[in-house]
Amino acid sequence: MALVVQKYGGSSVSDAESVKRVAKRIAEAKRAGNDVVVVVSAMGDTTDELLDLAAQITPLPPQRELDILLTAGERISMSLLAMAINNLGVKAKSFTGQQAGVITDAVYGKAKIVDVVPARIRETLDRGQVAIVAGFQGVNRASNDVTTLGRGGSDTTAVAIAAGLDADVCEIYSDVDGVFTADPRIVPTARKVDRLTYEEMLELAASGAKILALRAVEYGRRYGVPIHVRSSFSNATGTMVAGTHGDLIDPNALTSTAQEAGVEAPIISGVAHDRSEAKITVVGVPDVPGMAARIFEVVAAAGANIDMIVQNVSAAHTGLTDISFTLPEADGPLTLAALNGVQKEIGYDSLQFDDQIGKLSLVGAGMKTNPGVSARLFGALRDAGINIEMISTSEIRISVVTRADSLDAAVRAVHSAFELDSSEGEAVVYAGTGR
Length: 435
Ligand code: ASP
Ligand code: MG
Known about the structure:
It is a single chain. With 435 residues, this protein is of the alpha/beta class. It has a domain at 3-260: 3-Layer(aba) Sandwich (Carbamate kinase), CATH 3.40.1160. It has 15 helices and 20 strands. It has helices at residues 16-31, 46-57, 63-87, 97-100, 119-126, 154-165, 198-206, 214-223, 245-249, 256-261, 291-301, 332-340, 343-346, 373-383, 407-417, and strands spanning 3-8, 35-40, 92-95, 102-104, 113-116, 130-134, 137-140, 146-148, 169-174, 195-196, 227-231, 239-241, 270-274, 277-286, 309-311, 320-328, 350-354, 357-363, 390-394, 397-403. The protein has an 8-stranded mixed beta sheet with strand order 3-6-2-1-9-11-12-10, with helices on both faces. A 4-stranded mixed beta sheet has the order 5-4-7-8. A hairpin with an 8-residue loop joins strand 15 (309-311) and strand 16 (320-328). It is globular, with a radius of gyration of 23 Å. Bound molecules: aspartic acid (ASP) and magnesium ion. Aspartic acid is lined by residues 9-10, 41-42, 47, 73, 135-136, 151-155. Magnesium ion (MG) binds at residues 9, 41, 152, 154.
């Protein structure tokens, strides 16, 4: 008998029929003798629809109210799911994040979980019942207000609850069979990856892969929670996210494909893409000590999470340079306003804002010991006629910025240049709108 945490995403519970279908899976897991805790997202595209609704009321809704609004989505799915499970003769009870003991900091819209006190969940399990928990939400102790964890936050709820209960596994159910070498919606020949280390999955999630939320992976790594990413529409084994680099050098921990090929580990674990970023260029910055420090102090104070930074060589005759950086598109307006406020002080010429960019990232732990990976990546983009605007690298990742409208073509070109295509035909996307 195991303690299993199962998380179902919005596309797995998009209507009454799919709620009943998922309920059957949960009842089966329970009847097989497991203790089962379920974390559920809002139905279908509910969260986006609630956001659209708020935007029709006001362009800048108070964040406290927005969080209360958004938590409603998960309350709908959790209660319907509990009803459906009870209908099958298995006792189930649903809990809001607050009732489940998910304690967060006070940052509305992107709250961090600071503690999990799952007393009511344990009590429910001890009674032999299934506990259903609303994903993506918690409560701040000081204000007693509900908070949300940021988009995709139900994954984080699931892993945090799994850690808090010391569960055997956290299963993340979505509309595809696991983590693929690229988004199967863009590259139908993408291959399912059997196993990833936390580090590889962290890089993929940080680079825009939406299959698993970044915070959830961070949480999983910190507490050593094995995460099984799989489809709620099939019984296929998905992708196991567990272990670190060190483990992969242990021959017993090799992936099956790597074993067959007789190599240590695959060089590349996947190609991720991100359309949600924008680029700000500060034009004509005096090339003297302290300017970058000042610019990024201002950007940090505006609350923007910056990603790539490029500073050009200054033109010798002017002593001026341009500094470009990428950030989440949504942080653009506040950041531009903050930089505008220090134009005189810093003495730059102008600001440019570009939200038509796309970012492609190639991720793999084997990359750092394999020369020529960058050359192959750039060559693939050249052959596809795609211009590179920015480049950044880490030990196990190379990212490039392109025009947004050439991003899909770039992902396909790089995916095939690294021979990641599956020999088993096209990947199945079972549901979802990809929104
Ligand atoms: N419903 C929330 C969202 O759409 C949380 C989640 O799905 O994980 O972002
Ligand atoms: Mg999600």
